[in-house]
Amino acid sequence: MIKVIFRGAGPGYFCDTMSVIILLLAASLFVALIFLGLFLWSVKNKQYDDEFSPPRRILFDDEKN
Amino acid sequence: MPTEQFYYDNKTVKRFAYAVLFWSIVGMLAGLWASISLFYPSINLGLPATSFGRMRPVHTNAVIFAFVGNGIFMGVYYSLQRLCKTRMYSNLLSSLHFWGWQLIIVVGAVTLWMGKTSGKEYAELEWPLDIAIAVVWIIFGINLFGTILKRREKHIYVAIWFYIATWVTVAMLHIVNSVELPVSMWKSYSWYAGVQDALVQWWYGHNAVAFFLTTPYLGLMYYFLPKAANRPIYSYRLSIIHFWALIFIYIWAGPHHLLYTALPDWAQSLGVVFSIMLIAPSWGGMLNGLFTLRGAWDRVREDPVLKFLVVAITCYGMATFEGPMLSLKNVNAISHFTDWTIAHVHIGALGWNGFLTFGILYWLIPRMWNTPLYSKKLAGTHFWIGTIGIVLYAVPLYWAGFTQSMMWKNFTEEGQLRFQFLETVTHILPMYITRSIGGTLYIIGALIMVYNLRKTIKQGQFSANELAEAPALPAVAETHGRTYWHRWIERRPLQMLVFSLVAVAIGGMIEMIPTFLVKSNIPTISSVKPYTPLELHGRDIYVREGCYLCHSQMVRPFRDEVARYGEYSKAGEFVYDHPFQWGSKRTGPDLARVGGKYPDSWHYNHLLDPTSMSPGSIMPNYGWLFDHELDTLRTPSMIRAMQRLGVPYPAGYASEANNDLSAQEASIRASLKGDKISTGGNKEIVALIAYLQRLGKDIKAAPKEQTAMKDGGALMGN
């Protein structure tokens, strides 16, 4: 009833069914690299040199009422 | 140093807070409705929109994207301004963000009720809304980064890092998972097929939990918990370490949603390993939260805000311990496809997201309205009703899930399956009822909160713009003038919008290109053929009615599943499935091999009234399928879309597809006639029967050795 062209079983079964994983790896690595860059920047920017004042500073409000 | 005066924007925070209150009730009521329909299916009133298959996506989308989504934005807009000591970057963008998001929610709910769905869990919204979500997300991003850039506080507090990770990752997940080919205004087919679609979907699904339900809420915890307890976080160093560890590990754990499926083993194992590793950073966050309260536990007794936060963080700890355990293959073999999963996610949703949001609301609203909370006592009542609600919700479902799984796997001494599928369902109905009672209590608690906050708002005085002052950041000299370009750009929201759109478009293209290279459509099992036009229509109906939310199409290689459903599923069987329909829950039996199991007339009667064929069934009647006519005008565009996706229909087949459709339809009607059922021409029910009768048939036609060899293993079962 149905006329379909139909290719035989391709070689490399594994690669064909799972090639999308390359996309996911690329996307995940892409994001991971962004984060790595941010991490390196934050260390270089001395974001973590002071671990004492930032957690305390947020407790003080600067609102003027 | 001279201080500058500026105003915090409380108006946007207020709007998001109202949206949270409104959507929480809507989302939870939709959930209650869906849960009741599992033991009382006629609650659907015979309507398509109110049946489980459509209420469930409405519930999940409303709770995740409307309730939690607005909760994120409420908390971010409040805390970010104060952490950066500056007003939000742009009032206009704040406004666009708020109204755009609400519009998406409303249109999303309406289209889901109408059955417009892409058929991928937690990403059901159709392509126009996918685009709208991307645009609003970019608007949020500009506002977020713009605010960070013009901050008056050099240090970027850990909460902000969580917000940044949320924005970046959700943008990427959404784009990759939403690659789809539009067929019409409200219908599209997933670009990926079968196993690949499954992998992309659960990579998205898992990371949506990670980066929409977890990281932003951890950020909120790091701001609101210290504020509410009025003491600094237990260990700032731990917060930094667990943040970076969490975001680097989370993204690799997605395949744990596909254990024992047709996904290759190595990918499954990778998912398991990373899932186990996740315990460390997750518990780092939980312990950091709980230890913050050391020495302040006496205040937890009296302060409703802290009570909510403590239970939220505890639930986070439980859920993030349970998650890795569920990723172990031997545990997953029991839990997967059962209500155990539903219990697990609700510990997260009701406990972690819900209670954290409630705690923040109880803290935030009195502050913004400059008044004490209307009633601490009512807040306490809410806390206890809500907590009992969570227990009554989760415990029965853990019980139901475990019991049902054990019943599925139970054999008699003669080696026969001991229970019919339906018996395992009716056995756990009391647990379903208890779950709905738990859910009802939780909603009653939320309603008490709405009343309490309403009273608080009435008695208070709202300040839309809150005056604050802080010294400016040291001049640019320190940064060697390199900040010049963004100093320039950040004063120009419109240019920034355009630049960001360009940047995202480039990023999007880079991510799309590999998909064009993906060769997904080479049949690996030669007997697996594309769907006929009528079956394709039937499949669209199957997706529209949300059948995949109760029926899986994935037979795992277990003795009981092979005995019950037939040969276990192979990757090569799904190469034409755009989107895949493996499902994640078996409220009804698996359908991967249902084709040919029953006569056409059985399906006809079963869909008309499931209890006529299976007494005690909790499936609703699908009466409308017997009235609705098939839209055969759509057939050519459907075929053309599938061809573009690489499904090998012959060239020019689109124009003749309807001939084949009519022929197949006539043959099914003839077979129904043989069983004394006469049905009108072109009814949707016939297409659905055609699809169901096709499921799993192709592989039965295959020579045994070939499929066995392809799968690299011995064939089991019948």
Secondary-structure map with pairings?
The complex is a heterodimer of chains A (65) and B (718).
Chain A: H1 13-18, H2 20-44, H3 53-57
Chain B: E1 3-9, H1 11-36, H2 52-84, H3 91-113, H4 127-149, H5 158-177, E2 180-184, E3 187-190, H6 194-229, H7 236-250, H8 265-277, H9 279-292, H10 297-302, H11 304-327, H12 329-335, H13 339-368, H14 376-408, H15 421-427, H16 429-459, E4 465-471, H17 484-489, H18 493-517, H19 533-544, H20 559-565, H21 600-608, H22 610-613, H23 635-644, H24 653-674, H25 684-694, H26 697-701, H27 704-711
Antiparallel strand pairs in B: 1-4, 2-3
Helix pairs in contact in B: 1-2, 1-3, 1-16, 2-3, 2-6, 2-13, 3-4, 4-5, 4-18, 5-6, 5-7, 6-11, 6-13, 7-9, 8-11, 9-11, 11-13, 11-14, 13-14, 13-16, 14-15, 14-16, 19-25, 21-25, 23-24, 24-25
Précis, in short:
By secondary structure, chain A is mostly helical. Helix content of chain A is 55%, strand content 0%. Chain A has helices spanning 13-18, 20-44, 53-57.
